[in-house]
Input
Amino acid sequence: MPIYQLSENIIFPEVNEAEDGLLAIGGDLSVERLTLAYQSGIFPWFSSDQPILWWSPDPRFVLFPKELKISKSMRSLLRKESFKITKNHAFSEVISNCKNVSRRDQEGTWITPEMKEAYIALHHLGLAISYEVWDENENLVGGLYGIQLGKVFCGESMFANVSNASKYAFIKFVQEFEKSGGLLIDCQVHTKHLESLGARNISRKDFMDILNSSK
Output
C-alpha cells in the first residue's frame, strides 16, 4: 500500500490504510491537525531527522483501568503516600523531562522542539494534561502527559528521576481516571514497563470502536 503524503488540508486517510502501522507522512503539528489525529486513532511519532510520521498500529497496546496491576512494593509506597501528586501544575516541565530522560536502547528523542511546542499549545486548550510527582523537598521527580479524549486517554510519555516515580504517577492517574468514568488508556505500542502494569494488545478495530463510542 502507498504511504499517504498529507497536504495543507486537515484530513487523514482511513486507519485501515496503514502499512505496518504507518499511515501518512508530512503535514504539520497544528492544534487542528493533532486534534483530528487523536480523535481518529492516529498519533505522530518521528525523530528529528525525519519528516512528520503518522501512525495507527494494529494491534494497539492499551490498558483497561480495571486491569491495572499494582505490585506489593508499589502498594506499600501508595499507602505511605511517599510522593505528592499534582495535576496540570507543571506541564512544560514534565514534557521537558520526558524529552531529556535517558532511555535504554534508544538514542535521542521523538519529542522534538516542534513536538514540545505543539503539545504545550494543546495543554493551553485543555486537551493535553500532565500528572506530576514531587518529593518531600518539592522537587519534581516524575510525571506523565497525554491527550484527554472523553473516556479515552492517549498516553504520550512519562519520566522518573527517582525509582518508582513514573509508576507512582501512572497508578495514581489510572485510579483517578477510572473513578471519573474513564474506559481506556491508549499506550500506543508495547513496552515491558506498561505490560507489567496490566497493559495488553487489542485489535485496532476494537480500539476504534471504544474510541468512537466514548466521544
